[in-house]
Write a structure and sequence with these properties.
Blueprint: E1 5-9, H1 14-24, E2 31-35, E3 41-45, E4 53-57, H2 64-80, E5 85-90, H3 109-120, E6 124-128, E7 143-146, H4 149-159, E8 165-168, H5 174-184, E9 187-194, E10 203-207, E11 214-222, H6 226-237, E12 242-250, H7 256-262, E13 267-271, E14 285-288, H8 291-302
Parallel strand pairs: 1-4, 4-5, 5-6, 6-7, 8-9, 8-11, 11-12, 12-13, 13-14
Antiparallel strand pairs: 2-3, 9-10
Helix pairs in contact: 1-8, 4-5
């Protein structure tokens, strides 16, 4: 017999969880996810999961540590309640930026978090646009790594920007930008920082031609917006006719949204892997949903169907 499919959610991204269960046509699992008076996280499943195929949806966004703890305790509760399989669905993975040591005496935070999730009892992970593909290898359990490029590229195909150049804002994002470029049939440009010595920030340099052409900056996340703004200014200085930007994760910390609204960037497109109140999103920012993509992935995992076609 096929195990029963059940979806539970932490508190980090309730809107996305609601979209996912609506697409799947199943109810969201009933649970208590709150805090005790001393600040500790309190978890209790309100329905039977014995023998079920359980998926726990939780974006590890601000407050990051609290949302991580919610997910870990939910995984543990489901495992101890005799579910047949537990999958951690992580639309946005916190601590992913520190996936390698850049200086001595630093942790590899992404590896530690992967170990903790595995140790808590997760049997597999479903993630969206990890900061580095190498993070997949940090887990000792299966990882299905979804990409937001298809959703973002589909949006730009509909609005149609003739002669566009796809731009990677740094050398680390070249593979991502190239995948996006191939989907649009556009050319590619790369921005990088030329440092004279370790004490200076260095000047931005660019490979590729944007003179008189619209540019689309592609990144995995927008946090403070400083990298995005620097890249946009560099493109305009080199003759780009207009600048657009897109990223899977709109983290938007501090005054990032105000910075984007006042910037020369024409529009910014992100997905809802990180939640935001609708009234906080300026007119210049467009939010697309990954709900149907995650729902389709959950269904394929549940039914043991190949995921390959989702990556085309």
């Amino acid at each position: 017999m096929e195990a029963r499919l059940q979806i539970f959610s932490g508190n980090s991204n309730a809107g996305l969880s609601a979209e996912i269960v609506e697409c799947l046509g199943v109810p969201l699992g009933r649970s208590t996810v709150d805090t005790y008076q001393d600040g500790e996280t309190r978890i209790r499943l309100e329905e039977n999961v014995r023998g079920s195929d359980v998926f726990i949806v939780q974006s590890l966004c601000n407050p990051v540590n609290h949302h991580i703890m919610e997910m870990l305790l939910m995984v543990d509760a489901v495992r101890r309640s005799s579910a047949s399989r537990v999958t951690a669905v992580i639309p946005y993975m916190g601590y992913a930026k520190q996936e390698k040591k850049t200086q001595s005496r630093e942790p590899i935070s992404a590896k530690l978090l992967a170990n903790i999730i595995t140790q808590a009892g997760a049997d597999r992970v479903l993630a969206v646009d990890l900061h580095s593909a190498a993070i997949e290898g940090f887990f000792d359990i299966p990882v299905d790594h979804l990409r937001g490029a298809a959703i973002l590229a589909s949006y730009f195909q509909k609005v149609y920007i003739p002669g566009a150049v796809v731009v990677s804002p740094d050398t680390g994002g070249v593979a991502r930008a190239n995948e996006f470029r191939e989907r649009l049939g556009a050319s590619l440009a790369i921005i990088y920082r030329q440092q004279q010595d370790s004490s200076s920030e260095g000047e931005l340099e660019m490979v590729g031609d944007v003179e008189g052409k619209p540019a689309i900056i592609v990144d995995d996340m927008i946090s403070t917006g400083s990298t995005l703004l620097s890249a946009a200014e560099a493109l305009l200085e080199r003759g780009a006719s207009e600048v657009y930007a897109c990223a899977t994760h709109g983290v938007f910390v501090n005054q990032a949204l105000d910075t984007i609204e006042k910037s020369p960037i024409k529009s910014v497109v992100v997905t809802n892997t990180v939640p935001h109140r609708r009234e906080d999103i300026p007119e210049k920012v467009k939010v697309l949903s990954v709900g149907s993509l995650i729902a389709e992935s959950i269904l394929r995992i549940h039914k043991d169907i190949s995921m390959s076609s989702l990556f085309i």
